Amino acid sequence: MTKQRVTTAEAVPPAAAARNSSPVYPCTRPRSAPVLPLGKKLLKQLEASAAGTSSGIVSTWVEALRASSPQPARPPPPLVPSAANAGADNRRSTWMMEHPSALGMFDEIANLSEGKQIVMFLDYDGTLSPIVDDPERAFMSEAMRAAVRDVARYLPTVIVTGRCRQKVYSFVRLAELYYAGSHGMDIKGPKCTRGMKSVLFQPASEFLPIMDEVYRTLTEKTKSIPGAKVENNKFCVSVHFRCVDEKRWVGLAKQVQAVLIGYPKLRVTHGRKVLEVRPTIKWDKGKALEFLLESLGFANSGDVLPVYIGDDQTDEDAFKVLRERGQGLGILVSKVPRDTNATYSLQEPSEAST
Ligand SMILES: O=P(O)(O)OC[C@H]1O[C@H](O[C@H]2O[C@H](CO)[C@@H](O)[C@H](O)[C@H]2O)[C@H](O)[C@@H](O)[C@@H]1O
Known about the structure:
This protein is an alpha/beta fold. It folds into two domains: 15-51 and 97-204 and 282-346, HAD superfamily/HAD-like (Rossmann fold, 3-Layer(aba) Sandwich), CATH 3.40.50.1000; 56-68 and 205-279, Trehalose-6-phosphate phosphatase related protein, domain 2 (Alpha-Beta Plaits), CATH 3.30.70. 36% of the residues lie in helices and 16% in strands. It contains eleven helices and twelve strands. The chain has helices at residues 15-20, 35-49, 56-68, 83-98, 106-113, 142-154, 165-172, 208-222, 249-260, 285-295, 316-325; strands spanning 117-123, 157-160, 178-181, 186-188, 200-201, 229-232, 237-240, 266-271, 274-279, 304-310, 329-333, 344-346. The chain has an eight-stranded mixed sheet with strand order 5-4-3-2-1-10-11-12, with helices on both faces. It has a four-stranded antiparallel sheet with strand order 6-7-9-8. The longest helix is centred in the N-terminal third of the chain and has 16 residues, at 83-98. The protein starts with 14 loop residues before the first helix and ends in an 8-residue tail after the last strand. The model is unreliable at 1-33 and 349-354 (pLDDT under 50). Residues 123-126, 131-133, 135, 138, 161-163, 231, 233, 238, 240, 242, 271-274, 276, 312, 314 line the site of ligand L263DTV3.
C-alpha cells in the first residue's frame, strides 16, 4: 500500500487484520468448482452483450473526449477496396496479434491460472452494461448478472467503477461481491459472517463536502447547455458530453475549467464522452486493485491471478499495475485498436450511441 494519508468515514479493518481473518472466499479454488468454464461463460457474455479555438487544457480535454469513443472503421463496399480501409484493416490485425481475443486464448489463460487463486475485477459501464445515452438507464442484462453471479460463487469478484458505489449496487444487485465505487475511492466488501466486519475503505472522505459543492456548482453552470448532464458519484463528479451537440463541447469544457479554477485540490480525467472531476489524491483503479489483493491476503503472493476486464481510459491504471507486477491479466473491451496496457481484448459489438 502507498504511504498516502488515509481517512475513512467508517471503521476500516487494517489489511493485515483482513488477511488474518476468516476469508469470505476459500483461499484456494475448490477442486470441484468449474471455475474456468464459468469464466468462459462470463467472457462470452461480455462479448455478446456489452454492446451496448480555446485554451490548451480545454482543447486537450475535447480531443480526449473525441478519442474516447472512436468509430470503428466502416467495412469497404464490395469490390471497391480503398487504401484507407486496407490501412485500417492492417492496423486492426496487427493490434489483434498484440492483444488477442481473451476467448481465443482460453487454454493459455487456463494454464496460467493453474494452482492459483483467480481474483476477478470487473468494470461496469461499457463492460458489464452497454453504453447508452442516459447514465441512469445503463442496466445490465439478466444473462450478464447470472454470469457474474456464477463467477462470484467460486472467485472473489470485485466491481470497479467510476460510479457512486450505491448506484452501481442498484444496477448489479449482487450482495456477495466487493464494490469499488468512485474510481476505487469507496471500497466495500460483502457482509462478513462469524462476527467479522466487512471491509470499508474511503481514502478521500475528507473531500466529500467539496465534491458535493462542486457537483452543485457544475450543475448550475452547465444547465443552459442542452444535453449536458452532471452526475454525483460521491467522491467524484462526472460531466457528460454524450448528448451535447459536438459544436458545444468546447463551451461545456470551458465551463468545467472555469468552475475548477476555484478548486486547486481537484483534477480532471476523462472517460467515454465524460469528464471526471476528482480529488488530487494518488488513488485510482490500480491502487484499488492492489488494496483489494492485500485485503484478500494476496499482498506479495505468487499464488494469485488477478484478472481485470475494462473498457475505459481509467481502467488503464489497473492494467498498468498488472503489467508492472508481471502478474495477472488485463482484458480490454474495445472494438477498435487502442493504446493499452491490457494483454488481451474482447470485442464490443454494439455501442449503439457513438
Ligand atoms: O468505471 P465505469 O464503470 O466504466 O464508469 C465510468 C463512467 O460510466 C458512466 O458513463 C459512461 O456510461 C454512460 C451510460 O452508458 C454513458 O452515457 C456515458 O457517456 C459514459 O461515459 C457513468 O455515468 C459515469 O459516471 C462513470 O464515471
